[in-house]
TrEMBL record:
This is Outer membrane lipoprotein carrier protein LolA. It comes from the Bacteria. Gene3D superfamilies: Lipoprotein localisation LolA/LolB/LppX. Pfam families: LolA. InterPro entries: LolA/LolB/LppX, OM_lipoprot_carrier_LolA-like. The keyword Ribosomal protein does not apply. Residues 1-21 form the signal peptide. Keywords: Lipoprotein, Signal.
Length: 202
């Protein structure tokens, strides 16, 4: 599951208008946009411990309220990940390369718990799972999430994010020294933001 943690958590946090994990929750909630459909670009850089050159990837993401998240890596290798409450499906082209059932995979269930707590704005659940800290000014905010449970910390690590009306940057670091940075841009909302191909996957 470790190679998937970046995709899963980034997809969750890319929900943008649904993150309520900072201490000044009401203020951040009032600043965030909450569109039912949102798509955009992501640029990801992963620095592995002991390696000089980071691994880079980019693609598109879509978040559909009540349905799930679509994470489409375009470069360096095309791949599509669909996350719903019940399962995680990885597509290679039109073929299903992997399917994980959240009911039977403990790690999937744990990560999905975080994912859907973020998507639904379940602050009580997030505060149970994470130690939270954050600051807000007139037009921006930042949040730090530190897992309380050793198993969650091992699977996810510490998460830092910042934004305004939308999440702009996510930085994830684990105990092994790996560090992943994801930047979101070109965000569009509404049904027209999603292509027919993307919509068909939901």
């Amino acid at each position: 599951m470790k190679p998937m943690k970046t995709l899963l958590l980034a997809a969750a946090l890319a929900a943008l208008g649904q993150v309520h994990a900072a201490v000044p929750v009401a203020k951040i909630q009032s600043m965030l946009a909450k569109p039912p459909v949102m798509c955009g670009r992501f640029d990801q850089s992963k620095q592995l411990a002991g390696m000089k050159k980071p691994l880079a990837a980019n693609g598109r993401f879509c978040v559909v309220a009540g349905k799930g998240v679509l994470w489409r890596t375009l470069q360096p290798f095309p791949s599509t990940l669909r996350l719903t409450r019940d399962e995680i499906v990885n597509y290679q082209g039109d073929r299903v390369a992997m399917r994980l059932d959240a009911k039977t995979e403990p790690t999937v269930r744990m990560i999905n718990n975080v994912l859907f707590s973020l998507l639904s704005g379940d602050l009580a659940q997030l505060e149970t799972l994470f130690e939270v800290d954050g600051t807000v000014d007139a037009n921006s905010w930042n949040v730090v999430l530190k897992p309380r449970q050793p198993a969650l910390e091992k699977a996810i690590g510490t998460i830092k994010l910042d934004g305004g009306a939308y999440v702009k940057t996510i930085v994830m670091g684990d105990a092994g020294g790996d560090r992943t940075t994801i930047v979101f841009s070109a965000i569009q909302s509404g049904d027209a933001a999603m292509s027919k191909e993307e919509a068909a996957l939901f």
